[in-house]
Each structure stands twice: as structure tokens, then as C-alpha cells.
Amino acid sequence: YEMRFDLKTGEASQTKLSGPAVDFPRINENYTGR
């Protein structure tokens, strides 16, 4: 998130900068197919 504060009006706002963080775990390929 990005937070912005207007010091003259006292207004605060926030903006979402990106989507959710997602991890894609992998199985060690040395152990697959055994």
C-alpha cells in the first residue's frame, strides 16, 4: 500500500500498489519419480 497525507486538509488516503503475493512451492526434482 501507498499512504498519502495532505497536510493542508488533513486528508489521508491509501492506494493498493500490487496484487497479493503468491508463492508456488516446488518439489525437489531429485526426489520425483522414485
What does the model show?
This protein has 34 residues and is an all-beta fold. It contains no helices and 2 strands. It has strands spanning 2-5, 12-15. Strands 1-2 form a two-stranded antiparallel ribbon. The model has no long low-confidence stretch (mean pLDDT 88).
> Per DSSP, what share of the residues sits in E-state strands of 2 or more residues?
15-25%
Helices, by number, come to: 0
Overall shape: it is rod-shaped
User: What is the average per-residue confidence, as pLDDT, rounded to a whole number?
Assistant: 88
How is the main sheet built?
2 strands, antiparallel
- The secondary structure category is mainly beta
Determine the fraction of residues in helical runs and give it as a percent range: under 10%
Low-confidence stretches: none
- Give the total of beta strands: 2
CA-CA gap between termini: 45 Å
Main sheet: strand order: 1-2
**CA radius of gyration:** 21 Å
Order of helices and strands: EE
